[in-house]
Amino acid sequence: MSLDAADAVRDHVVLWSRAVPNRVDLSQLDDAERQRVHAAATPATARQRAAGLTLVRRALAEVLGTDAPAVAVDRTCPRCGGLHGPPRVVADPGLFVSVTHVRPQAGRMPAREAGVIVALTRIAPVGLDIVRSDDVQFPGFDAVALHPDDGLPADATSRARVWARKEAVLKALGVGLDTEPTSFPAGRPGVVQGLPNGSCAIVADLDLQAPAAEQSLGFDVGAAGQTVAAVALARSAPLVAVRWMPSGHP
């Protein structure tokens, strides 16, 4: 067990990250997870999926003091019962986890720019999202993403931040895109926001250019503003303390 990580998740959102490797590694996954990797539509998606599933297990194992293959993770979808839902720690339901991926754009970005980040905390249900600014530059984005209180984002980075904050909140609430992103504003970092279903959430932007992030990410997010990220907690207290685990953990 990493006592540092086990202690940190009590009052921080702790982040682990890694680049997506060039090969698929199934050695630490269970049968259901292997099936999800095999079902991927492309080799790149298979590598991305395997990397995310593995990093979730490694981060949980570091906090729980066990081996990664021994961690029981339930991914039952609350809507359809499939095994593609948000991860839940079977033996420790008070340990909350979220995972997000950044994918390279075909023909434009090298594989080293694909990556995965995992968040663990005991504070409250957590949601994490990372977005490239190019991903929100499509016709109709405003109609499917913006609440009237969001206004009109000034540029691609502003649009990406709106989307990252909303996705993080929806993940923290465990509802995903079953709730329309247009039904609530993105909110401001550090300000508790009430949501249409009566719940509350607090969101923070992640500084991917900060030294702690740059030392931990393991993949290239490009220049400032090209990639943004946000983390949210399903709670009513205005504090999100974030800590990056050093590169190489776990």
Automatic annotation (TrEMBL):
Source species, domain of life: Bacteria
Annotated 4'-phosphopantetheinyl transferase domain residues: 125-179
Entry-linked InterPro entries: 4-PPantetheinyl_Trfase_dom (IPR008278), 4-PPantetheinyl_Trfase_dom_sf (IPR037143)
Keyword tags: Transferase
Identification of the protein by name: 4'-phosphopantetheinyl transferase domain-containing protein
